[in-house]
Design brief:
The chain is α/β, with parallel strands linked by helices. It has 3 domains: 280 residues, HUPs (Rossmann fold), CATH 3.40.50.620; 116 residues, Anticodon-binding domain of a subclass of class I aminoacyl-tRNA synthetases (Four Helix Bundle (Hemerythrin (Met), subunit A)); 51 residues, no CATH class. Helices cover 48% and strands 15% of the residues. Strands 4-3-9-10 form a 4-stranded parallel β-sheet, sandwiched between helices.
């Protein structure tokens, strides 16, 4: 029986996952507002919930995963004005750029990636229903949600309505009755993109699109709703109010929120000049290391970016990759030898017990609120045990395959793609032959105890980006 426990922001405690439909998960995660490339803080959110999705699938759930694009928003309008471009062109371009960076990070495409502008008829109908039910009102072409009409407003952020009212103020351009009321529909300003509605030309407010997309693509009630901690209030609080007022029952069973990402101990912000775009980080570091770093802390905990932390992530990826290379190399050497040398009669019980122990360590970590930090520790336990195994004189092909398969399996669940980091990459055959010739010359120099010449060849190869490793089974090389 699957016993995944997850921390529910709504209840403030860990709960056992019990889905609406057996073995199926309706999962919604807030996506980007597409007015720029996404920064590394957004990147953490996207990577974290991609990993949650991957793990649910690994555990046998059928996951319908929806992630939206907010493609109509004040920030997109402002960005288009700055660039002197059409709003649609700006939004479309940054949606394409999102997929470029997401793909680099190993983030799987959602089952559906709806856009706000694709759901305008449904948004208008949803708002009309809220007005009809007494939960919303129109003022001079704007429509607002009446928070006083929803008795449980504040239950996600654990604030009372009085506490929230004290922290709000109404601007001179707003016509709402209460500071906590929020816009469902905004009347069009001169020159802005707009759609016709019963309340005049305008566009949807930010919060309404997610309620509508959930209902359209996942149903009136979903299993998991996820996003960054900064979305708890007001965005997710407002989603609950809209959806539960409209449908009269629970909107989402479980609310997951990832912690903040700080830069050198400070909150990331443009004013501090410490704003890091994911694209820029990917140009400096390997994608595997970036994803490893973003998963290196349990998702609810804060994560602190430093150059040292990224360097540690790079070294961790190199360590895992080296273990996989050594397993593959040992297998190649084994298969090239006499058939009787393999001695392969299947996986021995004691080795299988190690496989099972590592896998249980990994599953226990992920079952406990998707604790990727402890799951990564399980990967390194597999690496340690595999390296210990490689030091043995007698190995079996099935066991080498087993270690390689296990490490690759766990990395796949975490979405850490090492293929380009751990496999020797061939370029032109002539260059490979030249490298092999130099390595042969180095080995000959070492046998002749001409260590000066051997070191010169190693330095020459290193300068060309070639790393060589001397193992008990011979010298092997790969491009750094």
């Amino acid at each position: 029986m699957m016993t995944i426990r997850l921390y529910n922001t709504l209840s403030g405690k860990k709960e056992v996952l019990e889905t609406i439909e057996p073995n199926k998960v309706r999962f919604y995660a807030c996506g980007p507002t597409v007015y720029n490339l996404f920064h590394v803080g957004n990147g953490r959110m996207f990577v974290v919930f991609d990993t949650v999705r991957r793990y649910l699938e690994y555990r046998g759930y059928e996951v319908r995963f929806v992630q939206n694009f907010t493609d109509v928003d004040d920030r997109i309008i402002n960005r288009a004005n700055e660039l002197g471009e059409n709003v649609r062109d700006v939004a479309n371009r940054y949606i394409e750029e999102y997929f470029r960076d997401a793909d680099a990070l190993g983030i799987k495409p959602a089952t559906v990636h709806p856009r706000a502008t694709e759901c305008i008829p449904e948004i208008i109908a949803f708002i009309a229903d809220l007005i009809r039910l007494g939960h919303a009102y129109e003022r001079e072409g704007d429509v607002y949600f009446d928070t006083s009409s929803f008795a449980e407003y504040g239950k996600l952020s654990h604030q009372s309505l009085d506490e929230m009212q004290a922290g709000f103020r109404i601007t001179v351009l707003e016509h709402k009755d209460d500071p906590t009321d929020f816009a469902l529909w905004k009347s069009a300003k001169p020159g802005e993109e707009y759609w016709e509605s019963p309340w005049g030309p305008g566009r949807p407010g930010w919060h309404i699109e997610c309620s509508v997309m959930n209902a359209k693509y996942l149903g009136e009630e979903i299993d998991i709703h996820a996003g960054g901690r900064d979305l708890v209030f007001p965005h997710h609080e407002n989603e609950i109010a809209q959806s539960e007022s409209r449908f009269g029952h629970t909107f989402a069973r479980y609310w997951l929120h990832n912690g903040t990402l700080n830069i050198n101990g400070e909150k990331m912000s443009k004013s501090l000049g410490n704003f890091i775009m994911t694209r820029d980080l990917l140009e400096e570091r390997s994608a595997a290391a970036v994803r490893f770093f973003l998963l290196s802390a349990q998702y609810r905990h804060p994560l602190n970016y430093t150059q040292d932390a990224m360097e540690q992530a790079e070294q961790s990826v190199v360590r895992i990759g080296r273990s996989l290379r050594n397993l593959a190399h040992r297998r190649e050497v084994l298969l090239e030898g006499p058939s009787f040398a393999r001695g392969d009669e299947g996986v021995r019980n004691e080795v299988q017990a190690e496989f099972d122990g590592v896998r249980k360590m990994f599953v226990d970590a992920m079952d406990d609120d998707f604790n990727t930090a402890d799951a990564i520790a399980a990967v390194f336990e597999a690496v340690r045990l595999a390296n210990t195994y490689l030091a043995e004189d007698q190995v079996r092909e099935s066991e080498l395959n087993g270690w390689e398969s296990l490490i690759s399996e766990l990395l796949s669940v975490l979405g850490i793609q090492l293929s380009n980091d751990v496999t020797p990459q061939s370029t032109a055959r002539s260059e490979d032959e030249e490298i092999e010739s130099l390595i042969a010359a180095r080995n000959q120099a070492r046998k002749a105890r001409d260590f000066k010449r051997a070191d010169e060849i190693r330095d020459e190869l290193s300068a060309r980006g070639i790393t060589i490793e001397d193992t008990a089974q011979g010298t092997r090389w790969f491009r750094s």
